[in-house]
Every structure is written in C-alpha cells, then in structure tokens.
Amino acid sequence: xxxxxxxxxxxxxxxxxxxxxxxxKSALVCLLLAALFVSIIWFSALYYLPKNPHLFSEYLAxxxxxxxxFLPREEDILKDxxxxxxxxxxxxxxxxxxxxxxKAQIPVFNQFExxxxxxxxxxxxxxxxxxxxxxxxxxxxEPSEGLVGKTILIYHSHTTEAFxxxxxxxxxxxxxQTIVKVGEKLAEALRDLGATVIHDTTHHSKxxxxxxxxxRETVLRHLNSGVEFDLIxxxxxxxxxxxxxxxxxxxxxTINGVQMGRLLFVVGQRHDFWRNNYILAQSLxxxxxxxxxxEPERLSLSRGVVLKTSGNYNQDLNDKMILIEIGxxxxxxxxxxxxxxxxxxxINKTLGD
Length: 353
Hints:
It holds the Pfam family SpoIIP. By secondary structure, the chain is an alpha/beta fold. It has 3 domains: 15-48; 55-111, no CATH class; 145-352, Aminopeptidase.
C-alpha cells in the first residue's frame, strides 16, 4: 500500500529538490561545453576560412559523396587542411592516418613506426643491365644552361627503399638495387646539364624509425659547410599498394613507349615556412605537367603535390628542400631510372626560368 504521507514529507521534498538541482547542474555543464565547442568552431571558421576557400566544399564532400566528383583534384589545389590540423593538435589524432588513433589510446605504440607488410616476389636471378635495358624517352630539344652555376644536394632518408620486381624484397642494404642507385643516375644527369651535384649516400635507415633524425644530421652538416644550395632533394620511392595490381597503375606511366615511375612531390606542413617549400614543389609539378601532360593514352609524369600535416621531413631546415618520390616498390629499378632524365629536365627548366 502506497504511503502518501511519505510523498508529502519534508524528506521527500528534500530528495526531490536534490535530484532536481543535480539535473540542472548537469544540464548547465552540458550547455557550457556545447557553447564552448560552438565558439571554437565559429572562431576557427572565421580564422581559417580566408586561408582555405575550399573549407565548406570539403565538409559538403564528406556528407554528400556525389558532390566530391565536382571538386578539383586534391593534388591540384592548395589544401591547408587546417580543420584536420586543428583536430590533430587538440587531440593528437590525424584523421587521415588511423594509426594515430591507436597510438593516442595505446601510448606504447608511439615507440614504433608502422611499415606495411609487402608480399615478397621471387628474386630476379640476373642483375639488371642498366645500359642495355634502360631507354631514355625523347626530351625537349631546346638547349638550356639553366643549371650552370647551380648547386644541388641529393640524399636519401630511406636508403634501403628497393624495387620488389628487381630486388625481390621491398628493403635491402644492397644500394645498387635501391633508391640510392636512382639518386646516382639523377646526379649524373644533373651534372650533364651543368649543375654541381653532391650525392650523399649516407645510410640513414639502419633503424627505420630513426631515418629522418639521422638524415637531419646529414643535411645540417652540408648546410653548415658553407655551401649555398639551390635545391636539396630527399629522394624516395613510394610504398603505395598492397599488391602490384593495386600499386603499379598509380605509380607507372608510359611516355613514348617507355615505362617509367611517376613523380610525387611531398611537402610537410609542421613548420613555419612550409608555404615556401610548397611553392617550390608546385613549380616542379607544374613544369612536369607542362612537359609531360596527361593524354588520352597515358597519365602525366607527375602525380601532383601532397601536403602532410603530420611531419616536416626536415624541410624546416631550408626553404629549398623538397621530398621527391620516383615510382613505387612495385616498379622495377629500370622504370625508376627511366624517370631520371625527364626529372633532370624538369629541374633544369624550373631552376633556369
């Protein structure tokens, strides 16, 4: 039987008032947090929108997938990705890189750097014959002395990056099968165009997670030597694609019947003058697409410029630094070397103009 006297008692009224006041406090806290969140978004929009006119387009593209098809390609526009950067700095999570979410929740994973596991193809029995198998595509015939008097540094943060069809494995310390060999050929091509080239083959990848720290020491050593560089290249190959069928169509093109690795220019945004590095990268990209454009039967030699909010790739040391990737691990060494002469001409035309 219900005791109505209890509900009329002071004890019940005190309990009711207690729960009621607690609900009000909780509601006020929620409203305060919501107001704070809205304020952050509002002021972020006021600050960032003038710098990124594509901000609302990006949000629309996220909610309406079809809308994305009407936008220019990401690699063709300057994307500050400031909303992503703000999220990264606030929470330590890069929404474009799911591994940062895991590292944020499990701190021990911050001690390791993720390297994709790549299926190993059977090794090739014979060493590649560079002079016999590599055919350079026809280049622009206009004589140029754009690199006379120019000084260029080439180095490799990831010295062990290899080409699976050639070496049988994605990483090896046999530098005649890695990106170091490609750098050697690029140095020769640039010297032929009149440039003074230093090709530093210091091994930076003994521990992959320390590669950029080690290569930073190398770059600082050259910068402190008193030499003034017109261009500093950290030369890589890409690691895109879990299989040859997925990777090669992205990193390969055919120009005048010659298969070669496509170029990708990478700029890190985590330093103050990244825009200067971006201007340099975009100049090289524009020249590449001018000399070797998209055509119905082929892709452009350049894949474009990628901006990375999660690192600086040592580009904070000098505004003339650029990270260039030639092909990917599913390309052959020969295909990467085939790109050397066109890249040398791209650099020649860019620095000479």
